[in-house]
């Protein structure tokens, strides 16, 4: 009987983080001729200085406010915030009563979400993606995220923030970065978004439930700690950027660890740019403990960062179709193959980090 290796056939991989499965397509699919859309110019790098850019120091934004003459990072409230505070508190119960008939109460649920959306620019340089920044500049971004986390946990808001936000409405702080036109970024200037919401978003909530379940089923062991040990032992792949020991959030990183975190983000950006031979479009997000974490949430929270690429190759975008939307997510390449490509790219990197002597990104 011929033995078949897992990677030679289509198969599913379990994602314990979200209690869901991902379908890995068979090699056949990768070899099929592609006649669909090819991206040629969408990743042609960043535009050089744009004097009209509304994120540039001194320029006026859509709401008429003029940016200060900042030198590094600059934090401000998004002029087109998805959530607002000034519309008055929504009475969820009243909304539900209005929306629902008695028998539909379990089926047609809705709840109000209030919060604020902020923007954090990384640099005054319009064309500076993370991969072009120095380690000290990325560290400045990590420190700005950390300071924002700290101020969101306090009753007194940070003076850098333009509007007040009731502490009771600060349940979760989601940091994310849509980098590149292809992932819907509306401005090429390097920046991340910080959304503060009165509820925990679904994805970190689901991850937390799974980590909690693992903790209970594995005699108090932490799922991500076990994961990082396993991945390091196998040296086969990497799925996340995460500390080797449990750290609940950005505010718990010490000075050295913040620098290491910045260095790892910079290194990943450079490895991806080198792999694709161009400025890498990506989506990244940081998950950490909720702002007003309960004891149970603190017990299992584990700081980590996700990085996703919308590309299958420099010229082919990954689309989400019917199976992904209504079946389950699919991938054309295995995590082992992806990690091998990234390792190869890392080995080719010739530009050293400008202000550090060593890199410690293990792939
Ligand atoms: Zn700009
Ligand atoms: Zn996560």
TrEMBL record:
Transmembrane segments: none annotated. It comes from the Eukaryota. GO terms for biological process: galactose catabolic process via UDP-galactose, Leloir pathway. GO terms for cellular component: cytoplasm. Gene3D superfamilies: HIT-like (3.30.428.10). Keywords: Carbohydrate metabolism, Iron, Metal-binding, Nucleotidyltransferase, Transferase, Zinc. One of its GO terms (molecular function) is zinc ion binding. Binds 1 Fe cation per subunit. Fe cation binds at residues 207, 287, 304, 306. InterPro entries: GalP_UDPtransf1, GalP_Utransf_C, GalP_Utransf_N, HIT-like_sf. Its cofactor is Fe cation; Zn(2+). Residues 239-344 form the Galactose-1-phosphate uridyl transferase C-terminal domain. Residues 4-201 form the Galactose-1-phosphate uridyl transferase N-terminal domain. Belongs to the galactose-1-phosphate uridylyltransferase type 1 family. PANTHER family: GALACTOSE-1-PHOSPHATE URIDYLYLTRANSFERASE. This is Galactose-1-phosphate uridylyltransferase.
């Amino acid at each position: 009987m011929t033995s078949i290796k897992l990677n030679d056939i289509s198969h599913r991989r379990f994602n314990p983080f979200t209690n869901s499965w991902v379908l890995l397509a068979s090699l056949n699919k990768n070899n099929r001729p592609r006649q669909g859309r090819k991206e040629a110019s969408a990743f042609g790098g960043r535009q050089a200085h744009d004097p009209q850019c509304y994120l540039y120091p001194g320029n006026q934004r859509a709401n008429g406010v003029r940016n200060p003459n900042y030198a590094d990072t600059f934090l401000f409230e998004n002029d087109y915030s998805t959530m607002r505070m000034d519309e008055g508190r929504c009475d969820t119960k009243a909304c539900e009563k209005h929306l629902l008939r008695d028998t539909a109460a379990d089926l047609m649920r809705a709840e109000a979400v209030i919060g604020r959306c902020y923007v954090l620019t990384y640099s005054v340089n319009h064309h500076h993606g993370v991969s072009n920044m120095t380690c000290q500049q990325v560290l400045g971004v990590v420190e700005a995220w950390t300071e924002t986390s700290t101020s969101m946990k306090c009753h007194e808001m940070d003076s850098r923030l333009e509007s007040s936000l009731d502490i009771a409405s600060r349940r979760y702080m989601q940091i994310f970065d849509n980098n590149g036109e292809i992932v819907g970024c509306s401005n090429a200037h390097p920046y991340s978004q910080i959304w503060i919401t009165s509820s925990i978003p679904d994805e970190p909530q689901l991850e937390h439930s799974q980590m909690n379940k693992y903790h209970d089923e594995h005699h108090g062991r932490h799922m991500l700690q076990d994961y990082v040990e396993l991945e390091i032992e196998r040296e086969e792949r990497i799925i996340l950027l995460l500390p080797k020991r449990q750290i609940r959030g950005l505010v718990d990183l010490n000075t050295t660890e913040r620098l290491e975190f910045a260095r790892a983000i910079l290194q990943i950006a450079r490895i991806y740019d080198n792999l694709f031979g161009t400025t890498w479009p990506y989506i990244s997000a940081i998950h950490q403990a909720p702002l007003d974490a309960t004891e149970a949430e603190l017990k299992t929270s584990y700081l980590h960062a996700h990085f996703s690429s919308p590309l299958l190759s420099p010229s082919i975008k990954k689309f989400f179709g019917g199976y992904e939307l209504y079946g389950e997510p699919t991938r054309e390449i295995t995590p082992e193959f992806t990690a091998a490509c990234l390792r190869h790219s890392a080995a080719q990197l010739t530009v050293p980090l400008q202000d550090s002597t060593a890199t410690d990104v293990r792939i």
